[in-house]
Design goal:
Elements: E1 2-5, E2 8-11, H1 15-20, E3 32-37, E4 45-51, H2 54-60, E5 65-71, H3 80-101, H4 109-120, H5 124-130, E6 139-144, H6 155-161, H7 167-173, H8 177-180, E7 185-189, H9 194-197, H10 201-212, E8 216-225, E9 234-238, H11 257-260, E10 264-274, H12 275-284, H13 288-292, H14 297-305, E11 309-310, H15 315-335
Parallel strand pairs: 6-7, 6-8, 8-10
Antiparallel strand pairs: 1-2, 3-4, 4-5, 5-9, 9-10, 10-11
Helix pairs in contact: 3-15, 6-15
Length: 341
């Protein structure tokens, strides 16, 4: 989504950044609800932006739906405990978003403690029956968008490539094999980019959806941020699908419920920021009289900078860590509900 600030074209894929641009008391917008929280002692800050109606959608420049944001500086570090905590929180929020689509009740951590205590007195067979995921036997397709050979864009391919796929097990061991073991029928695909295939990702996925008939699709992609501080430290989840490349002005056909015919959930992490955003923030931090000394500087800079994007120097290590967090979180959400509710 692109917008103008002092003649700058500033792009961001993050709903929370879109909302932050509105001034006033709390930046309140008709048709948009915001909730922010952080669990006691947690390293993860949570934000939920809900776009409730068409007015909110027009103001935000995004479709109606739920946009969850997890922010944690630990995503940029190497602390194993923090990475595990982030993966658990991501898993919990992903699972709740998916279950909301299925109109299933959300289980709170307090309720889960009671469930675990109850399960502790059960036999192994009874435990297995009680330990239902909500996704057993469900056909789920994970899509890793992006170019695996361009590091800032490789998040989707690296995450999808490390998933524990199970759809083939029903074919090998008989129909119902996965459901009996509380497993989803999980499949994954990396469709590449148009320069590699000559096809839109939406075209490829429509064929895959038609043949494999998933009940829901999870799309993973690298995003563009408005703020440098959110690079590699923020995860956005949404139930609205995704328009690949929109954050960098490279508009492609959307992957949505309307285009694919099934619910589409998007998971994204910003890995690039526009150079215009960096220049704008730098200039905005100066005193007003310094800016006024050079009228028209915005127009002079924009043509050279509007298509330039910046990524951190350690992006390869960050992509490796983040793809691991996302992969672990997806596994926990779909295979191990007791760890993330």
């Amino acid at each position: 989504m692109a917008r103008k600030e002092n003649n700058f074209e500033v792009r961001t894929d993050l709903a929370v950044e879109q909302r932050e641009r509105f001034p006033g008391d709390g930046g309140e917008i008709a048709g948009v609800a915001l909730r922010e929280w952080r669990e006691s002692g947690s390293a993860v800050k949570m934000s939920e932006v809900q776009i409730l109606d068409e007015h909110g959608a027009r103001a935000m420049g995004k479709p109606k739906g739920v946009y969850l944001t997890l922010e944690a500086d630990g995503m940029a570090g190497n602390d194993e405990e923090e990475m595990e905590e982030i993966a658990r929180e991501f898993a919990m929020q992903l699972r709740r978003l998916l279950l909301r689509e299925q109109n299933e009740a959300q289980i709170t951590p307090k309720e889960l403690d009671g469930l675990k205590e109850f399960q502790g007195s059960k036999s192994e067979k009874a435990k297995n029956k009680e330990n239902r995921t909500g996704f057993e036997g469900k056909r789920i397709l994970v899509v890793g968008l992006g170019n695996a050979f361009v590091t800032p864009d490789a998040l989707g391919p690296r995450t999808a490539g490390n998933l524990k796929v199970t759809r083939h097990l029903d074919g090998q061991f008989g129909k119902g094999f996965c459901q009996e073991r509380n497993l989803p029928l999980l499949s994954a695909i990396v469709p590449g980019v148009m320069a590699q295939t000559g096809m839109e990702s939406a075209e490829i996925l429509r064929g895959i959806v038609r043949e494999t008939k998933p009940e829901l699709v999870i799309v993973i992609d690298a995003l563009a941020a408005r703020s440098v501080r959110r690079l590699g430290t923020t995860i956005q989840l949404t139930d609205t699908g995704i328009h690949p490349g929109s954050g960098v002005g490279n508009h492609r056909h959307g992957l949505t419920r309307e285009s694919l015919g099934v619910p589409v959930f998007a998971v994204g992490v910003p890995t690039v920021v526009g150079a215009t955003s960096i220049v704008h923030d730098t200039i905005s931090s100066l005193e007003a009289w310094e800016i006024e000394e050079k009228p028209g500087w915005e127009e002079k800079l924009e043509p050279e900078l509007r298509n330039l994007y910046v990524t951190p120097p350690d992006i390869d290590e960050r992509i490796q860590r983040i793809s691991r967090i996302l992969c672990d979180g997806i596994h926990q959400a779909l295979f191990e509900p007791e760890t993330c509710l």
